[in-house]
UniProtKB/TrEMBL annotation:
Pfam families: FCD, GntR. Residues 2-69 form the HTH gntR-type domain. This is GntR family transcriptional regulator. The keyword Heme does not apply. It comes from Streptomyces bullii. SUPFAM superfamilies: GntR ligand-binding domain-like (SSF48008), Winged helix' DNA-binding domain (SSF46785). The keyword Transcription regulation applies. InterPro entries: GntR_C (IPR011711), TF_FadR/GntR_C (IPR008920), Tscrpt_reg_HTH_GntR (IPR000524), WH-like_DNA-bd_sf (IPR036388), WH_DNA-bd_sf (IPR036390). Keywords: DNA-binding, Transcription, Transcription regulation. Coiled coil: none annotated. Residues 205-228 are annotated as: Disordered.
């Protein structure tokens, strides 16, 4: 069975974000193919995609390497998020489907429940799903793609502190969904802008001091674990 390049790309990206492939390290096709249990062809395609996204750079005499973004580039990402997420929410208020609303409302219910229980790990995952769904609801593949890449890069460059008031944070999520459901694009934009600005203050650069933080691989070498 041929493993799609986009699945290999997801696996490599996730491991870059997790710190398995450290900043500046070489990414050789042969070793990556062996690690993920695929041929070199999907690895080569995945590296081209990751280079276009900014996770990989090609260096003379070294080949593909994990990029090493500067603190200024990292700060730009947070500023872009504060500008673009409100736009996405505004568009979602105009273009969302009932299916999007159902998922968003379900995530808010779960988030509020977990927040009251103080389960921070569940909240992190639920928050990611919430913003991913909101981005998909904007009805613009181009904007959804940009917002998705922003989330990946921010997760790579920043550690995020748990919110001091998780219940309040999920109340904000609920208010955004209410505005989206009513088709109130201006309120959805304003609420999301405020939420994004508050969230940005909880981000701390991973590489500002003490080097990279490295976590365990998100994917084992065998391919059945590759996400599609």
């Amino acid at each position: 069975m041929r493993i799609p390049a986009h699945s290999v790309c997801t696996a490599i990206r996730d491991d870059i974000v997790a710190g398995v492939h450290e900043r500046g390290s070489r990414l050789t096709e042969e070793l990556l193919a062996r690690r993920y249990g695929v041929s070199r062809v999907p690895v080569r395609e995945a590296l081209r995609t990751l280079e276009a996204e900014g996770f990989v750079v090609t260096r003379r005499h070294a080949g593909a390497c994990v990029a090493e973004p500067t603190e200024e580039e990292a700060a730009d990402l947070l500023e872009m998020r504060v500008l673009l997420e409100p736009l996405g929410a505004s568009r979602a208020a105009q273009r969302r489907t009932e299916a999007h609303l159902k998922v968003l409302r379900g995530l808010v219910r779960l988030g509020q429940e977990r927040a009251r229980r103080g389960n921070s790990e569940d909240l992190r995952s639920l928050g990611g799903w919430f913003h991913e769904t909101l981005a998909q609801a904007c009805g613009s593949p181009a904007l959804t793609s940009v917002l998705t890449q922003l989330r990946h890069k921010i997760a790579w460059m920043y550690a995020v502190e748990a919110p001091t008031d998780p219940v309040g944070s999920w109340t904000e999520h609920g208010a955004i969904v209410d505005a989206v459901a009513r088709g109130d694009s201006e309120r959805a934009r304003a609420l999301t802008a405020l939420h994004a600005e508050r969230a940005s203050s909880a981000h701390r650069l991973r590489f500002s001091s003490g080097g990279d933080r490295v976590r365990k691989a998100q994917h084992p070498v065998n391919t059945p674990s590759l996400r599609h």
